[in-house]
Amino acid sequence: MIPLSVLDLSPIVAGSDASQAFRNTLALARHVEALGYSRFWLAEHHNMPGIASAATSVVIGHVAGGTSRIRVGAGGIMLPNHAPLVIAEQFGTLAALHPGRIDLGLGRAPGTDQRTMRALRRDYHSADTFPQDVQELLGYFRAATPDQAIRAVPGAGLDVPVWLLGSSTFSAQLAAQLGLPFAFASHFAPDQLLPALELYRSLFQPSEYLDRPYAMAGIGVVAADSDAEARRFFTSLLQQFVALQRGRPLMLQPPVDDMSELWTPQEQFSVEYTLRLALVGGPATVKAGLERFIAQTQVDEVIVTANIYDQAARLRSYEILADVGGLVGAASNR
User: Residue 4 and residue 32: Cα distance in Å, rounded?
Assistant: First the structure.
């Protein structure tokens, strides 16, 4: 099997708060580190009642400080929301504190709605300069020259691997052009997964960062001891996506036995279509689905997200996945 990693949104569950979400996130990071997962990434979202990781670099520092081996990073930082120099300084600081363990994934979406974009002081057209901003950021991580007028301190000369993230073919082409690793957000935008991977691989140019393409893809996984139990846990995520489609995001809701009263037929079709790659079931179901996904995509790594209301069930889901995915730490941690 290939490496498995984790994308966590620090979910705030109904009846709880951000403080508990951060405690849960750190507990999960320690758990998956022991199980043998490769990375633990957090994502930048704003004005989302159910997501606590808005100040992404701060949460990364919290997780990296509470773990010892697993790579910790952003999946991702929405670069058009920020000045490249500020991100270079933030991640240079993280890399100085936690050498060899920090990743920086970059996206060009706002990670929020248009009104919140304005509150972030983001220009609606700022995504247009994303390729230039990425190259500016990469420059800050190179060793500074004596006559360099602006440098990232810390940041210059530090080892901060930069990934490009995408849900379309745009970032796939840019990652190929720059010779960077690429991660596709197929956990919520599966439509262009295969075309994006094909473009990335066919257009890839070797660089100082990589000599061959390296692709990762995201999937949602809700694993439990039975298919029925997993399907019930999955209803929390279904409710969250219904709320997003209605423009009224919520905290992560408890699972329910029946979704029929909570969505319209049109919403059901749309949400199930969006989440159609999710692996939901007991160990045998999840193992078969994971093997099928890897065979179809030929990715080098899979990154998994699991928005499950109950923390114990969330930890168990990652245990099951580690076991069926053949991670080296799984057997010793049972």
Answer: 10
Q: Give the residue among 204, 122, 115, 223 at the shortest CA–CA distance from 164.
A: 204
Q: Is 124's pLDDT higher than 80?
A: no
Q: How confident is the model over 69-84, as pLDDT tens digits?
A: 999 999 999 998 899 9
| Residue 303 backbone phi and psi in degrees, to 5 | -110, 135
Tokens representing 45?
């979202």
CB 107 within 8 A of CB 130: no
DSSP classification of residue 20: H
Name which of 221, 225, 237 is nearest 290 in CA terms: 221
pTM exceeds cut of 0.90: yes
For 265-283, the pLDDT digits (tens) are 999 999 999 999 999 999 9
In contact, 216 and 302? CB cutoff 8 Å: yes
Contacts of 54 (CB under 8 A, 6+ apart): 44, 45, 46, 48
